Amino acid sequence: MNKQLKKVLQSKRDQHLEELKAFLRIPSISALSEHKQDVQQAAEWLAQALKQAGLENVQVLPTQGHPVVYADWLHAEGKPTVLIYGHYDVQPVDPLDLWETPPFEPDIRDNKIYARGASDDKGQVFMHIKAVETLLHTEGRLPVNIKFCLEGEEEIGSPNLDAFVAEHQELLAADVLVVSDTPMLERGKPTVCYGLRGLCGLQIDVRGPKGDLHSGLFGGGVQNPIHALVSILDSMRNAQGQITVQGFYDKVRPLTEEEKEAYRALQFDEEQVRKELDVPQLFGEAGYSFLERTWARPTLEINGIYGGFQGEGIKTVLPSEAHAKITCRLVPEQDPDEIARLIQQHIERHTPPGVTVTTQLFDKGKPFLTPFDHPAIQAAGRALQQAYGVSPAFTRMGGSIPIVETFHSLLNLPAVLMGFGLPNENFHAPNEHFHLENFDQGLVALCYYWFELEKALDQQ
Amino acid sequence: MNKQLKKVLQSKRDQHLEELKAFLRIPSISALSEHKQDVQQAAEWLAQALKQAGLENVQVLPTQGHPVVYADWLHAEGKPTVLIYGHYDVQPVDPLDLWETPPFEPDIRDNKIYARGASDDKGQVFMHIKAVETLLHTEGRLPVNIKFCLEGEEEIGSPNLDAFVAEHQELLAADVLVVSDTPMLERGKPTVCYGLRGLCGLQIDVRGPKGDLHSGLFGGGVQNPIHALVSILDSMRNAQGQITVQGFYDKVRPLTEEEKEAYRALQFDEEQVRKELDVPQLFGEAGYSFLERTWARPTLEINGIYGGFQGEGIKTVLPSEAHAKITCRLVPEQDPDEIARLIQQHIERHTPPGVTVTTQLFDKGKPFLTPFDHPAIQAAGRALQQAYGVSPAFTRMGGSIPIVETFHSLLNLPAVLMGFGLPNENFHAPNEHFHLENFDQGLVALCYYWFELEKALDQQ
């Protein structure tokens, strides 16, 4: 099968990339209400692509927010069923002036495709569709049953997917969940991920005087909301990088010696990361390595802060308001609701006099961990090994895909996270891109995987 | 003279207000380069108004930045010469959506005129011109010689006025400086101010990773520039409202018992301020009253902060940069250059690992104090007493007019600060306005003052 498959994929490559560009041109930013129609359009584009691939029962299913696109191929009688999850919504694109080419005008340079969503996650969703299409066209069948569940709200915390999955348990029933939305450990190192961090976050709104004041006339006599905000935020972390919100670490499952050893064995090059990011040094919770900090330890990050004058030069204002957005990455067994509550209590205890503080909770996601030795995980490793010709890494990841926990708890699905992005491809930042070498090898790996998975689950 | 003067002012009131509106319509925002032509237009408008008032030698004099408008009337032979200083530039207007009527479309409601610059300082500059015009038209002469020096860069720290005054010492030579750019203590309480705080400030620019990062993939392993910035800022003030920058208070001249007693005698209503500002409580340096904190104690205020995502909802970004603008109000004998240096040293000592921090200095102003018993100060009190019919307050003020110190050091001029704005007129904020009762009574007081000043300086 190998040679023929690669030949077909090669012959279709130009056409595939043109189709991908069309998909990436749709500005499906889920966070911004003015892009609602674009998100809908991306869903309809997907439905059309799934039909063209030979999938059946294709539906654009409404939710309270953006729709879910469903499709299946269920003719592998007696064989396991795979549920493929992905998302077709993308992050906002500001600051726009830092993009070398416009975010929604895909551009191929140096064998990379540049566009918002190229890597996270439209590019990878597209690969899954093309893998199935290619197998159906070349083999006439798939070795396993496949269902697609593609959502449009991942970048805003999947507010409606829990309800959707709960209402469609029969439709979505499967033996394993496969997601391609996590990056490879590094270039040339295909990766299977067995754990994800969870997420919770909130916006802090500090209000002081009812209007902006002249800092000369009132400065020193009235609490400044920005001072109050920085005091609250600074109280949440100490100089050792530890989060000082009371109870924050109470439920954290410590790293086992086996996990620590496995991470050390990856011989991860921290100096390389430092150089790539161009920082004087890396920084994080004292006593942990970079991989431990970003895979297996919880964090609290300030994602945005704003208040007062931001223009050119000086304005001697004592502002009326100040705001910050913070998110935590959580690890087993931290509970997002409990952590959000602990942070709110911390804020109450650390609010300086003279201002009022309110919080707005963002959507949450639970942390998740799959057994390392699950056959679907090991089969993924074999597929990657064959496609890339190197041994894959088995990792945990720092990012959050809240719905993985949803699928686990509602449908009792083990999850295989097999992503093809690279860590420096600027997800969520200007100049997002995707290396086409992983588009090519990843497509091969995905085709192999369905055969490996059939064998692995048959042996159970 | 009194009755005739008031009658003339009354008869001209509508015309005066129409002229003032025309002046206020010019968006002379000195901080924003796109308004350069508007600032120039405001200077030319002033020159025309000064000529119309009967002043002579009217000139729009260029500087490296915005021009200075000069005019004089020097026919009171053997009499003292007054230099009137004011500024025709205004603050930026953001946030624009909080203005009830547009900032550059003056609107009179409830006997107040609403517009950017109505109170600070175009309205008061205009009053000085109309006072002189009225006296020249009714009396045919002025009791003292008068020179106008009106600048267009006060709101950006008067970067070119030092050089201008140094180069025009003969042109500007005088016996006393009169400035109307300070507010009255409260409504119905005309005020002569004998001291001003100085100013220094800087922008703090924190840079971390070379681009924005995904907080899931990198969060916990890379210093977050916003965390670093809030840590730096929070280290500058303690919970008692004291500034913790080493050496900050070293040169501060303590309040004398006489000054403390004089401030207590004003029976200032702090609860009224609290209510007007709508804050849960006032806050400032422990051990000082509101007046002491805002008149005679130095401050460090964060005027603006920004970094990361500011839009609607959540974006899980670990940003590349974060920024803050801070300014200090200084009291005798603090030196702005020294304080700026102390802050820079503090920042260097308190920069967390993993980021680089740079600072940009803003323009500075020295603090200033005039002897309370100077005859020009006391004459101002008498003029206000006659115009308003109540005893005036003699105060110090929290704001900065850096050029007062310039005129003092270069021209050896005592300064009389006799302003007609009210503290809640939203200078530097949306809905700036000016009470027309103080436009009317202030015009009378300014006319009286030149006679009182002639007598007072004659007796010396």
From TrEMBL, chains A, B:
GO terms for biological process: proteolysis. InterPro entries: Cyt/Met_Dipeptidase, Peptidase_M20, Peptidase_M20_dimer. Coiled coil: none annotated. Signal peptide: none annotated. Keywords: Dipeptidase, Hydrolase, Metal-binding, Protease. Its EC number is 3.4.13.-. GO terms for molecular function: dipeptidase activity; metal ion binding. Residues 194-354 form the Peptidase M20 dimerisation domain. NCBIfam families: PRK07907.1 (NF005914), PRK08201.1 (NF006053), PRK09104.1 (NF006579). PANTHER family: BETA-ALA-HIS DIPEPTIDASE, SUCCINYL-DIAMINOPIMELATE DESUCCINYLASE. This is Dipeptidase.
